[in-house]
Specification:
Belongs to the mannose-6-phosphate isomerase type 2 family. Its EC number is 2.7.7.13. It is an enzyme of class 2 (transferase). The chain folds into three domains: about 280 residues, Alpha-Beta Complex (Spore Coat Polysaccharide Biosynthesis Protein SpsA, Chain A), CATH 3.90.550.10; about 70 residues, no CATH class; about 100 residues, Sandwich (Jelly Rolls). Helices cover about 25% and strands about 35% of the residues. The protein is built from twelve helices and 30 strands. Strands 20-21-22-29-24-27 form a six-stranded antiparallel beta sheet, with no helix packed on it. A five-stranded mixed barrel has the order 6-9-7-8-12. A four-stranded mixed beta sheet has the order 14-16-18-19, with helices on one face. Strand 20 and strand 21 form a beta hairpin. The radius of gyration is 25 Å and the shape is globular. The two termini are about 45 Å apart.
Length: about 475
C-alpha cells in the first residue's frame, strides 16, 4: 500500500485548510471508548490513534496547520497526540459544550475567513479510516476546483455492499466542465435492509462519508441563508474567544445560544450548491465493533484478535483485551471486548445495541459509562487501584516538569509513597523533596501541591482516607492549566 506521505505529496499544489471535528463520544465502541477518552484517541485500526491518522492525511506541503474543533475536556489529550506525530502549531478550538457539526463547521469557516474569505476548507471527522490514501489526491484536487467555483463538495464512497449503518447520497446530473463531479439529487437516511439492497443494486447511490470541501465564503453565505441563528451565535462566540495556552476558547454564553444541528440538516440537504464526487478511499466509519472486525486482519477461521487472547474452535469473532488474558472456545460471530473494569460480549449482528447499554449504564449512574479507571490529566494520569469504605488507593504518574494544582480537601487526608522518580511536595509552608521509597502525609485540610522536578516520570502510590473521596472534593487555589 502506498504510504500516506507518498500519497499526499501529490497534493503539494493544493492550499487547503484541514478541519478536524472531534466532538463525539463513540458510545458504540464501549467499553474502550468513553466520553472521558473517546474512540478518536485510541489506536483501533493501526499503531496510530484515529485522530493522528486523520491529521496526517492533510499534513505537509499544500496544507496549512489544521483547525481542530474539540471538547474542552479533551484539549490536553488532543494537543499531546498531535505533537506525537509532528503536527506543529495546530489551531485547537475548544467547544464549551457540544452543538453538533454545523456550529463546529461555522467556527472553522469564520476563523479561516479572518485571513482569507476564499480559503478552501477540507472538513473531516476524527474517527473515520481511509485504507486507500493513494486514491485521495486526484479526487481532492477535483473537489478544490469545484469548491472554488462556489459549490460545496462532499465525497460519496462507492458502496461495496448493501450497508444499513450508513447514510446514502443519490447522484444527479454531472457538472459541466468537471468530469467526475455530480449534483446531489438527494440525501437518504440510514435505510432498512430492503431499501439498502435496492439502492446498492441501482448504482446511483453512494455512502455519505461526512467529508466536505468548500470555501469559507460559500459556507458562510449558505449558513446565513438557512441557519442565521447558528451564524449569529457562533460569530459572537468566535469574536469573544480567549487564548488559553495553545488553545482558542470559544465564548460559552454565545456558543450556548447556537442550535444543536448537524451540517447535513442545516445546509447540505437544503442548498442548491451540493456536489458529490464518487470515490474509493477504502473509507470506513469506525462506529461499531463489527466495523472493526471487518477492518482487522483475521486468522484462517475469520477471527480478529487483539491483545493476550487464546481462541479455540471459534469462528468469525472479534476478541480484544487491553490487559487480562482472555480465552474463548466454541463461539461464533461474537464480539468480546475486555477492559480494565468492564467486559462486553455481544453477537456481531447486535453491534449497534452497545449504545443502548451505555444509555442504561448512565441512567443507573454507573461511572463505567463515561470514565475509565485510568484518567488522563494535563500533567499525566492517575489510575484507581482499590476502592473501599472510607479509603481509596491510586497510582499517580506525573510527567517531567509538570505539576498538579495547589489544592486542599475538606473530606480526605492523603498519604503519598514515591516508587519511581523524585517528588517536590508543597505542604502548607513546607517544600519537601520525597525520593524513591520515601513517603509524605497530607492531613485533611492541608494546602498541598505535587511537582515532578526531575527528567523521568514520577510514579507514586496515593492512599486516600476519609468519609468522602469524590474527585469534586478538590479546592484549587492555583492551577497552571487554568482549570476551575
Amino acid at each position: 500500500m502506498t504510504s500516506k506521505k507518498q500519497a499526499y505529496k501529490k497534493c503539494r499544489n493544493i492550499r487547503l485548510v484541514p478541519v478536524i471535528l472531534s466532538g463525539g463520544s463513540g458510545s458504540r465502541l464501549w467499553p474502550v471508548s468513553r466520553s472521558s477518552y473517546p474512540k478518536q484517541f485510541w489506536s483501533l485500526v493501526s499503531r496510530l490513534t484515529m485522530v493522528q491518522e486523520t491529521a496526517l492525511r492533510s499534513h505537509g506541503p499544500g496544507f496549512s496547520a489544521p483547525v481542530v474543533v474539540c471538547n474542552n475536556e479533551h484539549r490536553f489529550i488532543m494537543a499531546e497526540q498531535l505533537r506525537e506525530v509532528g503536527i506543529t502549531a495546530p489551531r485547537i478550538v475548544l467547544e464549551p459544550m457540544g452543538r453538533n457539526s454545523a456550529p463546529a463547521i461555522a467556527v472553522a469557516a469564520l476563523l479561516a475567513a479572518e485571513t482569507d474569505p476564499d480559503a478552501v476548507l477540507w472538513v473531516m471527522a476524527a474517527d473515520a479510516a481511509l485504507l486507500k490514501p493513494e486514491n485521495v489526491p486526484p479526487v481532492l484536487d477535483l473537489a478544490v476546483r469545484v469548491a472554488r467555483s462556489g459549490r460545496i463538495v462532499t465525497f460519496g464512497m462507492v458502496p461495496t455492499k448493501a450497508e444499513t449503518g450508513y447514510g446514502y447520497i443519490e447522484k444527479g446530473a454531472e457538472l459541466p466542465g468537471y468530469d467526475g463531479a455530480y449534483a446531489v439529487a438527494k440525501f437518504v437516511e440510514k435505510p432498512d435492509a430492503v431499501r439498502a439492497a435496492s439502492m446498492f443494486e441501482s448504482g446511483r447511490f453512494l455512502w455519505n462519508s461526512g467529508m466536505f470541501v468548500f470555501t469559507a465564503r460559500t459556507m458562510l453565505q449558505e449558513m446565513e441563508k438557512f441557519e442565521p441563528e447558528i451564524l449569529t451565535a457562533v460569530r459572537e462566540a468566535v469574536k469573544a474567544r480567549q487564548t488559553d495556552f495553545d488553545f482558542e476558547r470559544l465564548d460559552a454564553a454565545a456558543f450556548a445560544r447556537s442550535p444543536d444541528i448537524s451540517i447535513d440538516y442545516a445546509v447540505a440537504e437544503r442548498t442548491d450548491l451540493m456536489t458529490v464526487i464518487p470515490a474509493d478511499f477504502g473509507w470506513f466509519d469506525v462506529g461499531s465493533w463489527d466495523a472493526l472486525w471487518e477492518l482487522s486482519p483475521k486468522d484462517g477461521q475469520g477471527n480478529a484478535t487483539i491483545g493476550d487472547v487464546i481462541v479455540n474452535n471459534s469462528t468469525n469473532s472479534y476478541i480484544r483485551t487491553d490487559g487480562v488474558l482472555t480465552a474463548v472456545a466454541g463461539v461464533h460471530d461474537l464480539l468480546v471486548v475486555v477492559n480494565e473494569d468492564a467486559v462486553l460480549v455481544a453477537h456481531r449482528d447486535h453491534a449497534q445495541d452497545v449504545k443502548a447499554i451505555v444509555t442504561e449504564l448512565k441512567q443507573a449512574g454507573r461511572k463505567e459509562a463515561t470514565a475509565h479507571r485510568c484518567c488522563y490529566r494535563p500533567w499525566g494520569f492517575y489510575e484507581s487501584l482499590i476502592e473501599g469504605t472510607r479509603f481509596q488507593v491510586k497510582r499517580i504518574v506525573v510527567e517531567p516538569g509538570q505539576k498538579l494544582s495547589l489544592q486542599k480537601h475538606f473530606h480526605r487526608a492523603e498519604h503519598w509513597v514515591v516508587v519511581e522518580g523524585t517528588a517536590q511536595v508543597t505542604r502548607n509552608d513546607e517544600i519537601i523533596l520525597v525520593r524513591e521509597n520515601e513517603s509524605v502525609y497530607l492531613p485533611l485540610g492541608s494546602i498541598h501541591r505535587l511537582e515532578n522536578p526531575g527528567r523521568i516520570p514520577l510514579t507514586l502510590i496515593e492512599v486516600q482516607s476519609g468519609p468522602y473521596l469524590g474527585e469534586d472534593d478538590i479546592v484549587r487555589l492555583e492551577d497552571v492549566y487554568s482549570r476551575n
